[in-house]
C-alpha cells in the first residue's frame, strides 16, 4: 500500500499510555440484570450468551444518550498528529478518508463533517461508555468518534490470521478496519443509524441482530467506496492489498469467529455478517465506488 501521497488528518486524539482516570458505570453499558437475562436466554436457545451480550452492547452504544454513560475525565491525551509509525499510518488513512468523503458528499450538495479517531491502549472512556480493547474498534454516534486500540492490528495478523504477518498487504487490511468504522460515521451523518436504532426498539434480539448485520455490511461496502476513490486519486493499492483485506474480512466474519470460539455457527446470533457476506459487500463498494450501490437494507440477498 502506497502512503507517501496521502494527506494526514489532525483529527486524531492519542490516548495511548494515558493514566487511567475513568468512572465505572454499568458493565459494558448493560445492567447486571440484563446480562443475567441474556445468559438465561442464551442457555434456553442454545446460543452462546457472549454473542447476545455483544449484540445488546452494540444496541446500547447506538441508542443510549451520552448523559447515561461514563464521561471522560481530563487526562494526558495528545491531540496533535502522532509521529510514531502507527500513528502516522492512522493519520494518513483518516486524512485520505476526509478528502474522499468531503468530495462524495459535496456531489450531492451535502457537507461532510469528519469524525475524530481516538487511539488508546487497553481501556478509555467514550461517549458510549467504557471502551475496552476486547470490544475491538467501534464508532460512537454520541460523540462522533472512532475508538481504536491499535493492538487490534496485531490481533488481525496473529490471532485472527487476517493477513500474512509482516506483509505490506496488512496495511490495507488495517485501512479497511479504520474505514469500516468511518463508514458508520457516514451512516450517522446520512441519518441511517438513528433510523435503525428506532426500528430495533420494537424488535426481538434475533430480528435486531438481522438489522444490525445490514448496518455492518453497509459499512463494509462504504469502506470499499473509500478504497475505490482513493485508488483513483492516489494509486495507493499494490499487488496483494485487496487479497489481504478480503482475508481480513473473511477472518472476522461472524461464522468464522463463532466456529473458532464455540465450534459451531448460530446465524441468529450474527451481528456483523458472514465471511462471504463481508467480502462480497466490500468488493461491491470497491468495484462501483457508488454509495447508492451499498443499500444493504433493500438487498434481497446479503
Give the gist of this structure:
With 302 residues, the protein is α/β, with parallel strands linked by helices.
Describe the structure.
By secondary structure, the chain is of the alpha/beta class. It has one domain (12-294). The protein has helices spanning 32-45, 49-63, 85-107, 151-157, 169-189, 192-200, 205-234, 241-251, 254-262, 275-288; strands at residues 12-14, 116-120, 123-126, 129-132, 138-140, 145-149. It has a four-stranded mixed β-sheet with strand order 1-2-6-5. β3 (123-126) and β4 form a beta hairpin.
Could you state the order of secondary-structure elements as H and E? EHHHEEEEEHHHHHHH
Q: Residue share in helices?
A: 40-55%
Largest beta sheet: what is the strand line-up?
1-2-6-5
**Structural domains: how many:** 1
Going by helix content, strand content and strand pairing, the class is: alpha/beta
Q: Tell me the β content.
A: 5-15%
Number of helices: 10
Q: How many E strands?
A: 6
Low-pLDDT segments, ≥5 res? 20-36, 40-53, 56-76
Overall, the morphology is globular
Biggest beta sheet attributes:
4 strands, mixed
- Output mean pLDDT: 81
- Whole-Å distance between the termini? 29 Å
Radius of gyration: 18 Å
